[in-house]
Design a protein that fits this description.
Helix content is 41%, strand content 21%. The chain has 18 helices and 17 strands. Strands 1, 2, 3, 4, 5, 14, 15, 16 and 17 form a nine-stranded mixed beta sheet that branches. Helix 1 packs antiparallel against helix 18, helix 7 packs parallel to helix 8 and helix 14 crosses helix 16.
Length: 496
């Protein structure tokens, strides 16, 4: 059944091209048909949506998150990336598809309530991806009403195998314990990924699969090539964490004799469907390589600082011609999935590079990254704008909310000052999923109750894994900073 046309009247419209001011929007079959001055003609049968005292902007697009992290929100305090990776088996020890669906639902609910209408979710299942698990994640996004690219995150080497000499630094018994851990053979993981891609049953206008070899150092070269071939065969995206921490950059050069980006280029992974997450320790040549191949970077400034990874050079990436999207990362290392907060971090962190304001990103550049830049990284060509031909993924902000009083410069206010509390309604594909600040698709109190019960169950069952992590953590806390002290051509830390 075809939905009635909609005409949105009385709102102020903000798009990546600028602030349009008062404008009406005509929506037919979930897409924007026209944007024009107040009084825009509409079919007689069109339903009218009153947007008086509303600022309308395109739905924000999260270029990098991890749905498995939502049930483990904020469980770590002073953790580096490597400590977070070591804690993974304790944090996300799911053994049922329903637990994975629940975790993904929590994140999707938070994102849409905070103005985000699409995301790239690198969901990890231990020890490896399953058809039932990834289908449950897709079902979660489908139920909430959100768009998503869902990429099973995979590896064939553990953290202890990926970082040289780490095992030797552990006490003998502990080293034997964690050293005995193994990831599935990469051939088995590739077979599972192929089954997931082949059996995909969801509407690809909203939900798409992709492939995510987690970190190049955690994947043998034959596995990376197999992931490349799978992505090419099925026409899906490739997403990997690249030079997120200095340790990754240092170990990558020691192992490959070249940068991580140069190695991925040599293996044939770089291309328009490739997204490098973080890219904190990229140098100018790495950025040029990514740009030359039409690849994207998913910039995650909040988690980069939370984990002490450093401050990525977003301005340098843009100057090199890289498409930059914006992400929140996981609730285990960013603590919320709020893209407005992500925009604030992206803008403010660029100022920490120094006093030369020409190296600071502008609010307009940040807004573009959070909309069209991220949309390009996801592979969705028709989202991220309030323009004819684009999907009607729209966010309605209350102009009577304190962060918008008075309305002066809408782009600056959205990027530098908005925190999500102004979101009054969210529409995805012409359908309201949030209205009057209420999520229409999920019972949040029931979700909270179920989440508390499952987290308690996971903690009880994962007590031994937590104890192992707590034994490993002090060694990592000493070993990793020593490795990170290696001299490097660029510095992404402040105060050094």
């Amino acid at each position: 059944m075809t939905a009635r046309p909609l005409v949105i009247r009385g709102g102020l419209v903000l798009d990546g091209a600028g602030f349009f001011g008062a404008a009406d929007i005509l929506i037919i079959d979930g897409s924007i048909r026209a944007v024009g001055p107040p009084g825009l003609p509409a079919p007689d049968e069109a339903e009218t949506v009153d947007a008086a005292r509303r600022l309308i902007h395109p739905g924000l697009v999260n270029a990098h998150t991890h749905g498995h992290g939502n049930l483990a929100r904020s469980l770590g305090d002073r953790w580096t990336l490597e400590l977070l990776l070591a804690a993974g088996p304790w944090l996300s020890g799911y053994d049922r598809a329903e637990q994975k669906r629940l975790s993904a639902t929590i994140g999707a609910a938070e994102m849409v309530l905070k103005g985000c209408t699409a995301c790239y979710d690198l969901f990890v299942e231990l020890p490896g991806p399953t058809e039932d698990g990834i289908a449950a994640v897709a079902e979660a996004y489908d139920a909430v009403g959100m768009r998503a690219v869902i990429a099973p995150m995979v590896a064939d080497l553990t953290l202890y195998e990926a970082i040289p000499e780490l095992l030797a630094a552990l006490p003998t018994e502990l080293g034997q314990s964690v050293g005995g851990q193994r990831m599935p053979a990469w051939q088995d993981t590739v077979a599972r990924l192929r089954a997931i891609l082949r059996s995909w049953r969801f509407d690809t206008a909203r939900l798409r699969p992709a492939v995510a070899p987690t970190i190049p150092l955690h994947c043998r070269d034959p596995f990376l090539r197999a992931c490349r071939d799978l992505a090419e065969e099925f026409g899906v995206g490739l997403h990997s964490h690249v030079a997120e921490s200095k340790i990754q950059a240092v170990v990558g050069r020691r192992r490959y004799g070249r940068s991580l980006v140069a190695h991925l280029e040599a293996l044939g992974l770089l291309g328009p469907r490739f997204t490098a997450a973080h890219g904190v320790w990229l140098d100018t040549e790495d950025m040029r390589r990514l740009a030359a191949h039409g690849a994207s970077v998913a910039h995650n400034p909040a988690s980069n600082m939370r984990l002490g990874s450093g401050i990525a050079d977003m301005s340098g990436m843009l100057a090199a011609g890289v498409n930059v999207g914006l992400g929140t990362d996981a609730a285990t290392c960013s603590d919320n999935l709020n893209m407005y907060v992500g925009m604030q971090f992206a803008a403010a962190s660029s100022h920490a590079h120094g006093a030369d304001i020409r190296r600071w990103v502008t609010s307009a550049q940040v807004f573009a990254a959070a909309t069209t830049g991220s949309a390009q990284a996801l592979g969705f060509a028709g989202i991220g704008r309030v323009q004819p031909g684009y999907a009607a993924d729209l966010v309605f902000l209350d102009l009577d909310a304190p962060t918008l009083i008075p309305l002066t410069d809408p782009v600056n206010q959205l990027v530098l000052g908005e925190d999500g509390t102004s979101v009054e309604a969210v529409m995805i594909g012409g359908r309201f999923v949030v209205r009057q600040r209420r999520l229409l698709t999920v019972d949040l109190p029931a979700l909270a109750s179920r989440a508390a019960a499952v987290r308690a169950e996971l903690d009880a069952r994962g007590a031994a894994k937590r104890q192992t992590f707590e034994c490993v953590a002090p060694v990592l806390a000493d070993f990793c900073p020593a490795l990170a002290a290696t001299p490097w051509p660029v510095n992404r830390w402040c105060g050094c």
